[in-house]
Amino acid sequence: MKDPLTPEDKALWRLFSEGIDRLKKSKEEFVVLPSPLPLPPLKKQIPVVIQTKPEMKPRQVKYELSPLESRHLKNIIIDARLDLHGYKLDQAEVALNRFMTTSQQVNRRWVLIISGKGLHSAEGRGTLKKFVQEWFHQNTHLVTGFSESKPQHGGAGAFYVKVRRLRV
Q1: What are residue 147's DSSP bridge partners?
Q2: Do residues 162 and 145 touch, judged by C-beta distance below 8 A?
Q3: Are the beta carbons of 113 and 84 closer than 8 angstroms?
Q4: Confidence of residue 123 (pLDDT cuts 50, 70, 90)
Q5: Is the pTM of this model over 0.70?
Q6: Could you tell me whether strands 158-163 and 143-148 are parallel, antiparallel, or unpaired per DSSP bridges?
Q7: Which of 109, 113, 106 is closest to 81 using CA atoms?
Q8: Cβ contacts of residue 161 below 8 Å, gap of 6+?
Q9: CB-count exposure of residue 151 (10 Å: 0-12, 13-18, 19+)
């Protein structure tokens, strides 16, 4: 079988592994931890009854988007990014919903949404960019605020989005 490592890979590995010593213990000397014991069953289970009136509707909380000032954008750390280049509007909506919901669930604070400027679209009007901005306004349960990104992150073709914290 041919060696899959190139001479450059081997040289890089030698540089990386310099100064690293092998463990002096044999496999038999390592401590094997026992598997954890199962939890005992609950002694008493309390039934939970939730009474609702038929005319009650779930409370719809409507949040407002707060404007993001430049002081908010100075030291942000982008936790994740979504690039929507080449997406059609329906595909972009599905991807945006999934991405933002996941971002909220895993407690991301700042994400970068790249929509593109729309210069190369069929109409040349930036349809996807406008759609993304409207989506932010319609989904304030996921978005606290958004702003056009700095040039190094895409400028007018990308947005910094502050993810709303998940309320439990």
Answers
A1: 160
A2: yes
A3: yes
A4: low
A5: no
A6: antiparallel
A7: 113
A8: 100, 110, 111, 112, 113, 136, 143, 145, 146
A9: exposed
Q: Identify which of 136, 156, 138, 137 has the alpha carbon closest to the alpha carbon of residue 148.
A: 156
Structurally, what CATH architecture does the domain formed by 80-163 represent? 2-Layer Sandwich (3.30)
- Give domain limits for the chain: 80-163
Which residue's structure tokens are 């409370």?
Answer: 59
DSSP sequence for 23-69:
P-S-GGGSPPPPPPPPPPPPS-PPP------TT---------PPPPP
Residue-wise pLDDT for 57-115, tens only, equals 544 556 666 666 666 677 788 889 899 888 888 888 999 999 999 999 999 998 999 88
Calpha distance 133→87 (Å, rounded): 15
Q: Which amino acid is at 62?
A: K
Inform me whether the pLDDT recorded for 117 exceeds 70.
Answer: yes
Tokens of 70: 């430049």
